[in-house]
Amino acid sequence: QSQLVESGGGLVQPGGSLRLSCATSRAVFDSYAIGWFRQAPGKEREGVSSISHGGGVTYYADSVKGRFTISKDKSKNTVHLQMTSLRPEDTAIYYCAAGPFHRQHGIQPVLSWGQGTQVTVSS
């Protein structure tokens, strides 16, 4: 059973917003970076955003910079990904992940994956 539980996916129109959440245990929350990867049909899984275990360092893929914001809620052991100005090309399954923080890839290696949540951007 995954230690990472995602929520918040869905269908949104272009230009709209969604917030993804990833809840985990205190042990994982305090020890590892937590972030998001996504995989669109026919494409490889790619890192989207991550935040270090202390919360002081973040990673964003170039394609989402300025549109997505990652944050930690210590009271709930939860990481949020606020997605704004969504585009059709953001359509993918989004996976929460945990592991060591990596400045170029977000998290590497990934030690744990969530089950994934579908995000569809379409009019």
Describe this structure in words.
- The protein is mainly beta and 123 residues long.
- The protein has one helix spanning 26-31, and strands spanning 5-7, 10-12, 18-23, 33-39, 46-51, 58-60, 68-73, 78-83, 92-99, 101-102, 106-107, 112-113, 117-121.
- A hairpin with a 3-residue loop joins β10 and β11 (106-107).
- The longest helix has 6 residues, at 26-31.
- The N and C termini lie far apart (35 Å).
- The model has no long low-confidence stretch (mean pLDDT 95).
Give keywords:
single chain, 123 residues, mainly beta, 7-stranded mixed β-sheet, 4-stranded antiparallel β-sheet, 13 strands
DSSP strand tally: 13
Q: If helices are DSSP runs of H or I spanning 4 or more residues, what is the number of helices?
A: 1
Low-confidence stretches: none
> What is the 3D form?
globular
List the helices and strands in order.
Answer: EEEHEEEEEEEEEE
CA gyration radius, whole angstroms: 13 Å
Structural class: mainly beta
**Which range does the strand content fall in?**
over 45%
Oligomer: single chain
Helical content stands at: under 10%
What's the main sheet like? 7 strands, mixed
- N-end to C-end Cα span: 35 Å
Averaged pLDDT: 95
